[in-house]
Design brief:
This protein has about 325 residues and is α+β, with helices and mostly antiparallel strands. It contains eight helices and 19 strands. The longest helix has about 30 residues.
Length: about 325
């Protein structure tokens, strides 16, 4: 009886494994995945994007059909889900960082993903926290496999492949630009205060948030020119303004990043959780962002020292054996 039960369980295991292998993704032509999806042509090259609903739709296809028809997954290219967006140099708030991110960035990712999915009625509703967080971080385009209920984003296109699912493209006109002079600052010191204040922000007037009380000029520049200077690694900008202003750079500021203003090191103020803001005087100015991490340099030195030590141990050990012989 024991032998029969063991044999029976082995047969079930083999059938289960075969079934899984049969449903696993088969080989498919690389051209299917490298061909540009329709959504790319609908987005400007400078777009900053966020995707919603893709994982739910993907799971829905997988649970009903498995991997037997790999073509069923081709429409998901339209979502430009991370890190597929990198193929087309489109910025995404969804970039997969592997978990190696500062706590403030983790908080931001939680805020922009504060949504509610109604699969029965087939829609996603964005919370006010999610919308304002997306706008402040300059996300002017959303792509979703579900219709969105939102106050600031308007649907501008529907991408309907030959088969499920469709994708909806949304656009907001009041998303913060890549670089801008701040007009108003709201001081927040706790996460709870941040969540209370964020929905009340006036995005049209470029209000910012900070832990410190930052004094801002009474007037915004009336004449302003911002030009990005092409650099292979660093980021450099030329800003011409007729008034002293606090300029916010709509990007994350990780440890190791440094800023120079007109060739001199300067310490930026941190606003909107983790964005650098630099006080720029009236006139023509040059701002440079460059990355220099001492921890990274220490890691390189330790790696080189380890390789040299290993080489010496092997070489000296071989030399010692040679002398003995």
């Amino acid at each position: 009886l024991q032998l029969f039960i063991s044999f029976f369980l082995l047969v079930i295991f083999i059938i289960d494994e075969f079934s899984f292998s049969f449903r696993y993704p088969p080989l498919s032509p690389a051209a299917w995945w490298l061909e540009e999806p329709p959504s790319v042509s609908l987005l400007p090259q400078t777009a900053r994007l966020k995707t919603f609903g893709m994982e739910y739709s993907w799971n829905d296809v997988f649970l009903h059909q498995g991997w037997q028809e790999i073509k069923d997954y081709l429409p998901f290219k339209n979502a430009l889900f991370p890190n597929y967006n990198l193929l087309y140099n489109i910025h995404s708030a969804d970039i997969n960082t592997g978990g190696l991110i500062p706590g403030k960035i983790h908080l931001l990712k939680n805020l922009i993903n504060e949504i509610s999915l109604d699969q029965k009625n087939n829609f996603i509703q964005l919370s006010s926290l999610a919308e304002k967080s997306l706008l402040i971080f300059g996300v002017e385009h959303l792509i979703s496999s579900y219709p969105l209920i939102t106050d600031h984003y308007e649907q501008v296109e529907e991408i309907s492949p030959d088969f499920y699912p469709s994708f909806f493209l949304y656009h907001a006109t009041d998303a913060y630009p890549p670089i801008y002079p701040a007009s108003k600052n709201l001081q927040v010191t706790t996460v709870e205060e941040l969540k209370r204040t964020l929905p009340q922000i006036d995005t049209k007037n470029k209000t910012i948030l900070s832990i410190e009380d930052i004094n801002l000029p009474d007037e915004l520049p009336s004449k302003l020119s911002i030009k990005k200077i092409p650099k292979p690694i660093d980021e450099k900008y030329q800003i011409i303004t007729d008034k002293n202003s606090l300029f916010v750079f709509n990007r994350n500021f990780y440890p190791g990043w440094h800023v120079k203003l007109n060739g001199q090191d300067t310490t930026p103020a941190i606003v909107n959780l983790n964005q650098p803001a630099v006080r720029i005087p009236a006139g023509e100015n040059e701002i440079q962002f460059f990355f220099k991490s001492y921890v990274f340099l220490l890691g390189k030195l330790l790696t080189v020292a380890g390789l040299i030590t290993a080489f010496l141990m092997v070489f000296l050990g071989s030399l010692k054996d040679f002398r003995k012989s």
